[in-house]
Amino acid sequence: MNPTSATVLGGGITGLVCAYLLAKNGVKVRVIEGSGQFGGLLNTFEIGGTRLEHFYHHFFTHDAEINWLLGDLGLSDRIYFRKTSMGVYRNNRTYDFNGPADLLKFAPIDWPGKIRFAATSLYLGRFANWKSGEDISALEWFFRYAGRSATDALWRPLLEIKFGPYHDRVPIAWMIGRLSQRMQSRQAGEEQLGYLEGSLQTLLDRLLLKLEALGVELISDAPVESLEITGERLRSVTTRKGRFEDDHFIATMPSTYLTPLLRDAGAGDLAQSLSEIRYFGAICGILEMKKPLGRHYWLNIAEAGLPFGGIIEHTQFIDPQVYNGSHIAYLSRYFAPEEEIASMSEEEIRRLFLAGVVKVHPHFKQEDLMDFRLFRTRTAATICDLGFSKRVPDCRTSIDGLFLANMAHVYPDERSVNNSIRVACETIRVMGLDSAMVPKGRSLSGLLGFGPPDK
Q: Which domains does the chain have, with CATH numbers?
């Protein structure tokens, strides 16, 4: 194809990395972002004299793509990896859950269940092929192979709080991707996770500066209002800031935003297929406190009736002194559009979340809370139900000049900055340009919708 110019629609990490790789190939690039700032789910806010992500982030030692990008941007010396700890809250008690010894002490699972839990987790994380798990739900698979004790005590409540009404329709293929990612980050039972000094704002700022230096035109606060499609080719897009023509467009925004634009432009068939991709929203309540909550970085909530699925205590990972001594914890909740929490006010969610914190950590006192911030999005992750791979769209669409690169292409892996970079690389490859500069790690993202990989 060898495009000489391209316009990227959407200025999240996928769009920005697409632009970066296009520019490194000598392509003239324009990025159009609908909101007032670039970064998407990488956006941050000020806290304790530094920046923190709206939605918790970390990366893994085996994440080759983000490590390459940070190195290419001259940020390798800003990365650090640290040992983290995990726990599970079940039956009104917090358990350590970091390795085999902790599993033996986990009272909610009986002894036969512990053996089956360990065996099935190892199989899924190390040996299973995700393609064989497309048409069986994770819940059914766990009942069949991990057994009732382990499934009732752990897997079912975790699936219910994360996926809500879709908890019994998530394929085991997704769980294979999830467990594979986590197990690869463990050595001798300990998990090392990475973070960037100054938060991902450091990456975002450096990437935007590099794009400007490469001559990339960055246009923000310009939501796409319409598409001009004639002769089965996308000719231009019209935004609040004007009309832009090009021969090649990469749409990286969620499908829910692109679908009505395509329908209005007469691309009904493509719009219909994309309309089958739905999204979970996400809420992160962020506590800034005088004291820590618990002893774990990541506490999985396996207890019915609580309003969040995890307590991610950021300052059990990053030293509180980085934030002038403040202790920080995320309260994480995914939600389907039809769930009640999707329409709750910020104050309603605040009360609900804080009541949940008191239940898990009875020692928590209101006077220890310095601030509570709430961030939410309606497009946090695609709803990956049974047979989802059949709905992952082709990057090269039926509309000439239009390419797609979005969260659907992350499946069967979990959304992350690293996996977004992998999706961007595959998009550039499909366009006939060089992406071989980016190493391929163990990510399962970017496998669907891009045709056969380069040899």
A: 1-82+193-276+389-455 (3.50.50.60), 99-188 (1.10.3110)
